[in-house]
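CO-FOLDING WORKSHEET

Operator: S.A.
Ligand of interest: adenosine-5'-triphosphate
Run index: 332
Mode: holo prediction, single chain
Checklist:
[x] sequence pasted
[x] SMILES validated
[ ] output reviewed
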Amino acid sequence: MKNNGSSSALGIDVGTSRICLAKRNEGQFDFDSQLNAFVNIPYSPITESVLKKEKISHTARNGEIVVHGNEADKLAELLGVEMRRTMSRGMLNPSEPESLSMIREMIASLVGEPQGKTRIAFTVPAAPLGAGDSLTYHEETLKQVLSGMGYEAQPVNEGLAVVYAELEAQNFTGIGVSCGAGLCNVCLAYLAVPVISFSIPQAGDYIDASAASVTGERANRIRLIKEEAFHFNGRFAEKTHQVLGVYHDVLIRSLVEGMAQAFETAGKAARLSRPLPIMLSGGTTMPAGFRDRFEKIVRDQPFPVQISDVLLAPEPLHSAAKGALTAVLTNP
Ligand SMILES: Nc1ncnc2c1ncn2[C@@H]1O[C@H](COP(=O)(O)OP(=O)(O)OP(=O)(O)O)[C@@H](O)[C@H]1O
Ligand SMILES: [Mg+2]
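OUTPUT RECEIVED:
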Protein backbone atom coordinates (compact mmCIF):
# COMPACT_ATOMS: atom_id res chain seq x y z
CA MET A 1 0.00 0.00 0.00
CA LYS A 2 1.23 3.47 -0.83
CA ASN A 3 1.74 6.20 1.65
CA ASN A 4 1.02 9.82 0.94
CA GLY A 5 3.81 11.33 2.99
CA SER A 6 2.94 14.56 4.68
CA SER A 7 -0.33 15.28 2.83
CA SER A 8 -2.98 16.14 5.36
CA ALA A 9 -5.64 16.92 2.80
CA LEU A 10 -6.79 14.86 -0.16
CA GLY A 11 -9.59 15.02 -2.73
CA ILE A 12 -10.99 11.97 -4.44
CA ASP A 13 -13.43 11.85 -7.33
CA VAL A 14 -15.20 8.52 -7.21
CA GLY A 15 -16.58 8.17 -10.73
CA THR A 16 -18.50 5.47 -12.57
CA SER A 17 -15.58 5.04 -14.93
CA ARG A 18 -12.54 6.28 -13.01
CA ILE A 19 -11.41 7.09 -9.50
CA CYS A 20 -9.14 10.12 -9.43
CA LEU A 21 -7.08 11.29 -6.46
CA ALA A 22 -5.82 14.86 -6.05
CA LYS A 23 -3.12 15.94 -3.63
CA ARG A 24 -0.94 18.99 -3.08
CA ASN A 25 2.72 18.69 -3.79
CA GLU A 26 4.96 21.73 -3.36
CA GLY A 27 2.17 24.13 -4.22
CA GLN A 28 1.02 22.11 -7.25
CA PHE A 29 -1.92 19.76 -7.69
CA ASP A 30 -0.89 16.17 -8.35
CA PHE A 31 -3.26 13.57 -9.75
CA ASP A 32 -3.35 9.81 -9.85
CA SER A 33 -6.20 7.72 -11.23
CA GLN A 34 -7.41 4.18 -11.73
CA LEU A 35 -10.10 2.71 -13.92
CA ASN A 36 -13.02 1.82 -11.65
CA ALA A 37 -13.34 -1.69 -13.08
CA PHE A 38 -12.10 -5.22 -12.58
CA VAL A 39 -11.80 -8.53 -14.37
CA ASN A 40 -11.45 -12.10 -13.04
CA ILE A 41 -8.73 -14.34 -14.48
CA PRO A 42 -7.79 -17.92 -13.55
CA TYR A 43 -5.20 -18.25 -10.79
CA SER A 44 -1.69 -19.44 -11.50
CA PRO A 45 1.41 -18.74 -9.40
CA ILE A 46 3.29 -17.47 -12.46
CA THR A 47 0.52 -14.98 -13.36
CA GLU A 48 0.46 -13.75 -9.79
CA SER A 49 4.20 -13.21 -9.67
CA VAL A 50 4.18 -11.36 -13.01
CA LEU A 51 1.37 -9.11 -11.82
CA LYS A 52 3.38 -8.36 -8.67
CA LYS A 53 6.49 -7.61 -10.70
CA GLU A 54 4.57 -5.29 -13.03
CA LYS A 55 2.95 -3.60 -9.99
CA ILE A 56 -0.53 -4.29 -11.37
CA SER A 57 -3.27 -3.96 -8.71
CA HIS A 58 -4.82 -7.34 -8.04
CA THR A 59 -6.22 -9.67 -5.39
CA ALA A 60 -5.61 -13.43 -5.45
CA ARG A 61 -8.24 -15.70 -3.92
CA ASN A 62 -9.91 -19.11 -4.25
CA GLY A 63 -8.50 -20.21 -7.58
CA GLU A 64 -8.74 -16.84 -9.31
CA ILE A 65 -7.10 -13.46 -9.54
CA VAL A 66 -9.09 -10.26 -9.66
CA VAL A 67 -7.23 -7.56 -11.56
CA HIS A 68 -8.53 -4.08 -10.82
CA GLY A 69 -7.80 -0.61 -12.09
CA ASN A 70 -6.12 0.47 -15.33
CA GLU A 71 -5.01 -2.97 -16.53
CA ALA A 72 -8.52 -4.47 -16.25
CA ASP A 73 -9.38 -2.76 -19.51
CA LYS A 74 -6.62 -4.34 -21.60
CA LEU A 75 -7.06 -7.77 -20.05
CA ALA A 76 -10.80 -7.73 -20.75
CA GLU A 77 -10.17 -6.80 -24.40
CA LEU A 78 -7.52 -9.49 -24.70
CA LEU A 79 -9.71 -12.19 -23.18
CA GLY A 80 -12.83 -11.02 -25.00
CA VAL A 81 -14.80 -10.59 -21.78
CA GLU A 82 -16.65 -7.57 -20.40
CA MET A 83 -15.07 -5.69 -17.53
CA ARG A 84 -17.03 -5.69 -14.30
CA ARG A 85 -17.72 -2.31 -12.76
CA THR A 86 -18.34 -1.30 -9.16
CA MET A 87 -20.56 1.61 -10.13
CA SER A 88 -23.38 2.28 -12.51
CA ARG A 89 -25.02 5.64 -13.25
CA GLY A 90 -22.90 7.48 -10.68
CA MET A 91 -23.57 5.14 -7.76
CA LEU A 92 -22.50 1.79 -6.33
CA ASN A 93 -23.89 -0.82 -8.68
CA PRO A 94 -26.66 -2.78 -6.89
CA SER A 95 -26.43 -5.69 -9.34
CA GLU A 96 -22.67 -6.21 -8.87
CA PRO A 97 -22.21 -8.41 -5.76
CA GLU A 98 -18.56 -7.41 -5.39
CA SER A 99 -19.01 -3.69 -5.85
CA LEU A 100 -18.27 -2.82 -2.22
CA SER A 101 -15.25 -5.07 -1.73
CA MET A 102 -13.72 -4.01 -5.05
CA ILE A 103 -14.25 -0.29 -4.60
CA ARG A 104 -12.65 -0.59 -1.16
CA GLU A 105 -9.59 -2.27 -2.71
CA MET A 106 -9.30 0.34 -5.43
CA ILE A 107 -9.71 3.32 -3.14
CA ALA A 108 -7.17 1.81 -0.72
CA SER A 109 -4.60 1.26 -3.45
CA LEU A 110 -4.95 4.88 -4.59
CA VAL A 111 -5.04 6.77 -1.28
CA GLY A 112 -2.83 4.56 0.89
CA GLU A 113 -2.82 4.91 4.65
CA PRO A 114 -3.34 8.28 6.33
CA GLN A 115 -0.35 9.86 8.02
CA GLY A 116 -1.73 11.43 11.15
CA LYS A 117 -4.91 13.42 10.89
CA THR A 118 -5.85 13.53 7.22
CA ARG A 119 -9.01 14.96 5.77
CA ILE A 120 -10.38 13.77 2.47
CA ALA A 121 -13.33 15.05 0.47
CA PHE A 122 -15.00 12.61 -1.92
CA THR A 123 -17.37 13.52 -4.72
CA VAL A 124 -20.97 12.41 -4.74
CA PRO A 125 -23.47 12.93 -7.56
CA ALA A 126 -26.60 15.02 -7.25
CA ALA A 127 -30.01 13.34 -7.36
CA PRO A 128 -31.39 12.85 -10.86
CA LEU A 129 -33.81 15.52 -12.03
CA GLY A 130 -37.26 14.78 -10.64
CA ALA A 131 -36.10 11.83 -8.46
CA GLY A 132 -36.11 11.69 -4.69
CA ASP A 133 -33.27 10.85 -2.34
CA SER A 134 -31.58 7.75 -3.68
CA LEU A 135 -28.04 8.77 -2.80
CA THR A 136 -27.86 8.04 0.91
CA TYR A 137 -26.57 4.48 0.61
CA HIS A 138 -23.85 5.42 -1.87
CA GLU A 139 -22.66 8.44 0.11
CA GLU A 140 -22.72 6.74 3.52
CA THR A 141 -20.93 3.66 2.19
CA LEU A 142 -18.07 5.68 0.71
CA LYS A 143 -17.81 7.61 3.97
CA GLN A 144 -17.60 4.31 5.87
CA VAL A 145 -14.92 2.97 3.52
CA LEU A 146 -12.72 6.05 3.98
CA SER A 147 -13.37 6.41 7.73
CA GLY A 148 -12.60 2.71 8.13
CA MET A 149 -9.17 3.44 6.68
CA GLY A 150 -8.63 6.21 9.25
CA TYR A 151 -9.53 9.29 7.17
CA GLU A 152 -11.80 12.13 8.16
CA ALA A 153 -14.13 11.96 5.20
CA GLN A 154 -16.63 14.49 3.91
CA PRO A 155 -18.78 14.39 0.77
CA VAL A 156 -18.79 17.14 -1.84
CA ASN A 157 -21.28 17.48 -4.65
CA GLU A 158 -19.56 16.76 -7.99
CA GLY A 159 -20.91 19.82 -9.85
CA LEU A 160 -19.94 22.07 -6.95
CA ALA A 161 -16.47 20.52 -6.98
CA VAL A 162 -16.11 21.71 -10.60
CA VAL A 163 -17.04 25.24 -9.48
CA TYR A 164 -14.45 25.06 -6.66
CA ALA A 165 -11.79 23.79 -9.04
CA GLU A 166 -12.27 26.11 -12.00
CA LEU A 167 -14.24 29.23 -11.06
CA GLU A 168 -12.15 30.82 -8.31
CA ALA A 169 -11.55 33.92 -10.48
CA GLN A 170 -15.34 34.34 -10.72
CA ASN A 171 -15.69 34.11 -6.92
CA PHE A 172 -17.07 30.61 -7.28
CA THR A 173 -20.13 31.93 -9.09
CA GLY A 174 -21.29 30.02 -12.14
CA ILE A 175 -22.53 26.69 -13.42
CA GLY A 176 -20.24 23.66 -12.95
CA VAL A 177 -20.94 20.75 -15.28
CA SER A 178 -19.29 17.33 -15.11
CA CYS A 179 -20.11 14.99 -17.99
CA GLY A 180 -18.78 11.60 -16.97
CA ALA A 181 -19.57 7.99 -17.81
CA GLY A 182 -22.74 7.38 -15.81
CA LEU A 183 -24.12 10.86 -15.27
CA CYS A 184 -23.90 14.49 -16.17
CA ASN A 185 -23.83 16.51 -12.95
CA VAL A 186 -24.74 20.17 -12.83
CA CYS A 187 -24.45 22.71 -10.02
CA LEU A 188 -25.34 26.37 -10.15
CA ALA A 189 -23.40 28.12 -7.41
CA TYR A 190 -23.52 31.71 -6.22
CA LEU A 191 -20.53 32.89 -4.18
CA ALA A 192 -19.60 29.24 -3.50
CA VAL A 193 -23.10 28.44 -2.24
CA PRO A 194 -24.78 25.63 -4.19
CA VAL A 195 -28.16 26.98 -5.30
CA ILE A 196 -29.40 24.21 -7.61
CA SER A 197 -27.81 20.86 -8.35
CA PHE A 198 -29.05 17.84 -10.26
CA SER A 199 -27.88 15.05 -12.54
CA ILE A 200 -29.15 13.44 -15.70
CA PRO A 201 -28.62 9.70 -16.27
CA GLN A 202 -27.16 10.06 -19.77
CA ALA A 203 -23.40 10.40 -20.25
CA GLY A 204 -20.53 8.44 -21.84
CA ASP A 205 -21.95 4.98 -21.06
CA TYR A 206 -25.24 5.97 -22.64
CA ILE A 207 -23.39 7.11 -25.79
CA ASP A 208 -21.40 3.84 -25.94
CA ALA A 209 -24.41 1.57 -25.36
CA SER A 210 -26.63 3.44 -27.81
CA ALA A 211 -23.99 3.51 -30.55
CA ALA A 212 -23.28 -0.18 -29.90
CA SER A 213 -26.92 -1.11 -30.39
CA VAL A 214 -26.99 0.68 -33.76
CA THR A 215 -23.66 -0.56 -35.12
CA GLY A 216 -23.63 -4.06 -33.62
CA GLU A 217 -20.18 -3.45 -32.06
CA ARG A 218 -19.45 -4.12 -28.38
CA ALA A 219 -19.86 -1.05 -26.15
CA ASN A 220 -16.24 -1.25 -25.03
CA ARG A 221 -15.06 -1.21 -28.66
CA ILE A 222 -17.21 1.89 -29.31
CA ARG A 223 -15.69 3.53 -26.23
CA LEU A 224 -12.17 2.97 -27.58
CA ILE A 225 -13.08 4.41 -31.01
CA LYS A 226 -14.78 7.38 -29.33
CA GLU A 227 -11.82 8.13 -27.05
CA GLU A 228 -9.22 7.73 -29.79
CA ALA A 229 -10.73 9.43 -32.78
CA PHE A 230 -14.18 10.98 -32.41
CA HIS A 231 -14.55 14.74 -32.97
CA PHE A 232 -17.48 17.01 -33.77
CA ASN A 233 -15.96 18.95 -36.62
CA GLY A 234 -16.02 18.02 -40.26
CA ARG A 235 -17.73 15.25 -42.14
CA PHE A 236 -17.98 11.76 -40.74
CA ALA A 237 -16.14 9.37 -43.02
CA GLU A 238 -17.06 6.35 -40.93
CA LYS A 239 -20.47 5.09 -39.92
CA THR A 240 -19.43 4.70 -36.24
CA HIS A 241 -18.38 8.35 -36.09
CA GLN A 242 -21.64 9.49 -37.60
CA VAL A 243 -23.57 7.41 -35.04
CA LEU A 244 -21.40 8.81 -32.24
CA GLY A 245 -22.16 12.32 -33.54
CA VAL A 246 -25.89 11.65 -33.27
CA TYR A 247 -25.71 10.43 -29.67
CA HIS A 248 -23.40 13.21 -28.51
CA ASP A 249 -25.97 15.64 -29.86
CA VAL A 250 -28.81 13.82 -28.09
CA LEU A 251 -26.82 13.98 -24.85
CA ILE A 252 -26.05 17.70 -25.13
CA ARG A 253 -29.68 18.49 -25.91
CA SER A 254 -30.94 16.48 -22.89
CA LEU A 255 -28.40 18.22 -20.69
CA VAL A 256 -29.30 21.70 -21.89
CA GLU A 257 -33.03 20.92 -21.58
CA GLY A 258 -32.46 19.57 -18.07
CA MET A 259 -30.60 22.75 -17.13
CA ALA A 260 -33.33 24.97 -18.57
CA GLN A 261 -35.99 22.99 -16.72
CA ALA A 262 -34.15 22.92 -13.38
CA PHE A 263 -33.24 26.60 -13.45
CA GLU A 264 -36.72 27.57 -14.58
CA THR A 265 -38.71 25.59 -12.05
CA ALA A 266 -36.43 26.48 -9.17
CA GLY A 267 -37.18 30.09 -10.02
CA LYS A 268 -34.28 31.33 -7.93
CA ALA A 269 -31.73 31.55 -10.69
CA ALA A 270 -33.74 34.09 -12.64
CA ARG A 271 -33.21 36.56 -9.84
CA LEU A 272 -29.44 36.46 -10.22
CA SER A 273 -28.39 39.82 -11.52
CA ARG A 274 -25.24 38.84 -13.39
CA PRO A 275 -24.65 36.56 -16.37
CA LEU A 276 -23.04 33.28 -15.31
CA PRO A 277 -20.23 31.27 -16.90
CA ILE A 278 -20.76 27.58 -17.66
CA MET A 279 -17.69 25.43 -16.90
CA LEU A 280 -17.68 22.09 -18.75
CA SER A 281 -15.62 19.19 -17.42
CA GLY A 282 -15.50 15.39 -17.32
CA GLY A 283 -14.26 12.86 -19.88
CA THR A 284 -17.31 13.18 -22.11
CA THR A 285 -16.45 16.82 -22.88
CA MET A 286 -13.09 15.82 -24.37
CA PRO A 287 -13.88 15.22 -28.06
CA ALA A 288 -12.73 18.22 -30.14
CA GLY A 289 -15.64 20.55 -30.82
CA PHE A 290 -17.71 19.58 -27.74
CA ARG A 291 -17.57 23.08 -26.22
CA ASP A 292 -18.58 24.77 -29.50
CA ARG A 293 -21.47 22.36 -30.03
CA PHE A 294 -22.67 22.85 -26.45
CA GLU A 295 -22.48 26.65 -26.76
CA LYS A 296 -24.43 26.62 -30.02
CA ILE A 297 -27.21 24.49 -28.54
CA VAL A 298 -27.44 26.50 -25.31
CA ARG A 299 -27.49 29.86 -27.11
CA ASP A 300 -29.99 28.72 -29.76
CA GLN A 301 -32.83 28.34 -27.32
CA PRO A 302 -34.53 30.42 -24.65
CA PHE A 303 -32.60 29.85 -21.44
CA PRO A 304 -33.75 31.02 -18.00
CA VAL A 305 -30.27 32.22 -16.94
CA GLN A 306 -28.05 34.68 -18.77
CA ILE A 307 -24.83 33.00 -19.83
CA SER A 308 -21.54 34.92 -20.02
CA ASP A 309 -19.06 32.35 -21.36
CA VAL A 310 -19.07 28.64 -22.06
CA LEU A 311 -15.68 27.38 -20.89
CA LEU A 312 -13.92 24.03 -21.01
CA ALA A 313 -11.85 22.97 -17.98
CA PRO A 314 -8.13 22.80 -18.81
CA GLU A 315 -7.93 19.20 -17.55
CA PRO A 316 -11.47 17.83 -17.81
CA LEU A 317 -10.60 14.48 -16.18
CA HIS A 318 -9.12 16.12 -13.07
CA SER A 319 -11.55 18.95 -12.27
CA ALA A 320 -13.79 17.13 -9.81
CA ALA A 321 -10.87 15.68 -7.81
CA LYS A 322 -9.14 19.07 -7.76
CA GLY A 323 -12.39 20.66 -6.57
CA ALA A 324 -12.81 18.06 -3.83
CA LEU A 325 -9.30 18.86 -2.58
CA THR A 326 -10.05 22.60 -2.81
CA ALA A 327 -13.14 21.98 -0.66
CA VAL A 328 -10.91 20.55 2.09
CA LEU A 329 -8.17 23.17 1.74
CA THR A 330 -10.59 26.11 1.87
CA ASN A 331 -12.54 24.81 4.88
CA PRO A 332 -9.92 24.53 7.60
N1 LIG B 1 -10.47 11.44 -24.88
C1 LIG B 1 -11.75 11.16 -24.71
N2 LIG B 1 -12.64 11.40 -25.71
C2 LIG B 1 -13.94 11.09 -25.55
N3 LIG B 1 -14.47 10.55 -24.44
C3 LIG B 1 -13.63 10.31 -23.43
C4 LIG B 1 -12.25 10.58 -23.50
N4 LIG B 1 -11.67 10.21 -22.33
C5 LIG B 1 -12.67 9.72 -21.57
N5 LIG B 1 -13.84 9.77 -22.23
C6 LIG B 1 -15.16 9.30 -21.75
O1 LIG B 1 -15.46 10.00 -20.58
C7 LIG B 1 -16.21 9.17 -19.69
C8 LIG B 1 -15.48 9.12 -18.37
O2 LIG B 1 -15.40 10.43 -17.88
P1 LIG B 1 -15.12 10.71 -16.33
O3 LIG B 1 -13.85 10.06 -15.94
O4 LIG B 1 -15.27 12.17 -16.14
O5 LIG B 1 -16.36 9.91 -15.70
P2 LIG B 1 -16.59 9.43 -14.22
O6 LIG B 1 -16.32 10.57 -13.30
O7 LIG B 1 -15.86 8.18 -13.96
O8 LIG B 1 -18.16 9.09 -14.25
P3 LIG B 1 -19.41 9.75 -13.50
O9 LIG B 1 -19.05 11.15 -13.12
O10 LIG B 1 -20.52 9.70 -14.49
O11 LIG B 1 -19.67 8.88 -12.32
C9 LIG B 1 -16.25 7.78 -20.32
O12 LIG B 1 -17.50 7.60 -20.95
C10 LIG B 1 -15.12 7.83 -21.34
O13 LIG B 1 -15.36 6.99 -22.45
MG1 LIG C 1 -17.43 12.16 -12.66
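REVIEW:
The first strand starts at residue 9 and ends at 14.
The CA atoms of residues 267 and 318 lie 31 Å apart.
[x] output reviewed
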